[in-house]
Amino acid sequence: MDFKSAAALGSCLSKDYAEDFFELLVNYQDVSASEAASRLGLHIRTAQDFLEALTGLGIVEQREVFEKKRPYYRYTLKARRITLDLDLAQVRRPRSAGDLARQVREKAHSGARFSLARSGDRIGQVSFSTGEGRERKEHKISLTDPQGLFLYHLPFPNAEPLAIGDILRKAGVEAKLSPEILDIIDVLIRHGAIDVVNRNDASREVAG
Amino acid sequence: MYTLRKLKPNRTYGWILVPIGLMAVMLAVGALFGAPAGFAVGGAVFTLYSAYSCLTFVRTANAGFIVVTLFQLSAGLVAFSWALAYGQRPNRLGLVFVACMLFFMAWMVLLAATKKIRWRGREVLELAAAEVEQAQNGYTGRPLPVGKTDFTQDHILGFAEFARRHLIAITYVGRDRVAFVPVREGNEPAFILGLKDDYTDETWVCFDFAGNVSANVSQRDYLDFREALSFDKLCQSLGDLFVEFVGLFQRGESVRILDRLDAVGLSMFE
Q: Which residue, B66, B27, B75, B82, is CA-closest to B48?
């Protein structure tokens, strides 16, 4: 099951009328949205949405019938058991070996504010301001310990950039924790707080 | 010898405003309510000031501030005695107070001239910046991990006491670390009065007891340099300077620390 389907199923199951609705579906051969709504004391639109969501998930089957010339749907339960099986590996971001070789450093005048953690040996929080005037908002990100250690060792804006892997080693952060480090790096790059320096640019800059 | 300064000249003349302000208040009160009232106000201000100097002594253990406290206390007593005996012939006790005041004043001037009661933050920053070259402004609010040392907790705590006593830095002693905040002359009241619980926005060097050293230069101090210095080099240099100081202290050569600070050659008014 993909994440979107799991979220839709979770949303259906979380409704406070879900259990009663399923009881109806299990015990009735088939049911229309208006019959279910009247039986459960719901608005017809609510019942219709619920049944359509279950149809989309393949849990109930929809059949068009006609009363005189007016068509409407009747719903029959198709699955007798619902299993929510979600492989979380599918939301893991694809990473390449080259990710850790990227040369990075803090970007000058980015406006990002780094606050020290209480322990004093890592960054505890990074915050950014977005918008102007009344629309100005502050976005604070509390960092995990490995992220805080990494950012503590990130080269300064006018220092020579370092490869992400080298910074991890310097900070004493295990390589297996690199996905969460790469995640915060991506966020900081998006906010313009980290510079990814091309190896050639960096050597030219240092030479200059 | 002319030494090129990296910091902008000190243009804070707050220290001169205190005696001028006191004189003005004394004159104003004297003109409105009579001379004894003016002297009484002067006495009260000197006595309050002596409490502040006493607090400085308590926080730093710098014995020079006992002399400053005694000068201010005796000046207060002189002012009170003049307020009480205004228009009468000077009595013996009043003359003793004046003699004490002059004695402690001379001693205090000597201490000031020999930089014994001078906050050394300016010298620390000059020394840290001495070898740092101009670069593009690379300021960041993040501290720099300077490196690792093998100083013991006792060495660090011992140096903290030394740094406090010689006004090199205000220290924040934590469970597993000591932070040194070099304070410049004129900026110390907030630290002495305990208004700076959080030092992280200041310039500091931190030694943890595992041997890690980190350094930070505040934006205010960074902008006080004449040129935009290479920020990472400045932080590194500041950290290295304190590592050198702790090393000298460890080897029993603490007098060399004061020699290095004196060698910057700042006058008592800078």
A: B75
Residue B142 is nearest to which of A120, A121, A123, comparing CB atoms?
A123
pLDDT at res. B13: 67
What's the pTM value of the predicted model, to 2 decimals?
A: 0.78
Which is nearest to A151 in space by CA: B239, B140, B117, B129? B140
- CB contacts < 8 A, A to B, total 56
What the block records as the tokens of B59 is 């926080």
Taking chain B (270 residues) in consecutive chunks of 10 residues, what is each chunk's mean pLDDT? 72 73 87 89 91 95 95 92 82 88 94 91 93 82 91 94 95 93 90 90 93 92 90 93 95 93 80
B142/A108 touch (CB, cutoff 8 Å), yes or no? no
Two tokens, residue A180: 């969460």
Provide the percentage of residues in chain A whose pLDDT is more than 70.
95
Predicted complex: ipTM over 0.95: no
Q: Do B230 and A116 touch (CB under 8 A)?
A: no
Q: For chain A (length 208 residues), average pLDDT per consecutive 10?
A: 90 95 94 95 96 94 89 92 88 80 90 87 89 82 95 91 93 90 92 81 45
Place of tokens 């890690």: B212
**Strands of the sheet with B177-181, listed across from one edge:** B144-148, B212-216, B204-208, B177-181, B170-173
- Beta-carbon separation of A158 and B142 below 8 A: no
> Is A114 close to B142, i.e. CB distance below 8 A?
yes
Domain boundaries, chain B: 34-113, 121-262
Burial B95-112 (b: 16+ CB within 10 A, else e): eebbebbeebbeebeebe
- CA distance linking residue B57 with residue A167, whole number of Å: 44
User: How do strand B144-148 and strand A103-106 relate by DSSP bridges?
Assistant: unpaired
> What would the pLDDT profile of A138-182 be if each residue is shown by its tens digit?
889 999 999 999 999 999 988 889 999 999 999 999 988 998 999
**Contact residues for B248 (Cβ-Cβ < 8 A; gap 6+):** B254, B256, B257
Q: Chain A residue with minimal CA distance to B134?
A: A158
Q: Three-state SS for A60?
A: strand
Beta bridge partners of residue B229, listed in sequence order: B134
Q: Smallest Cβ distance to B230: which of A113, A123, A158?
A: A158
When the pLDDT of each residue in chain B is averaged and rounded to a whole number, the result is 89
Rounded to whole angstroms, how far apart are CA atoms A119 and B143? 13
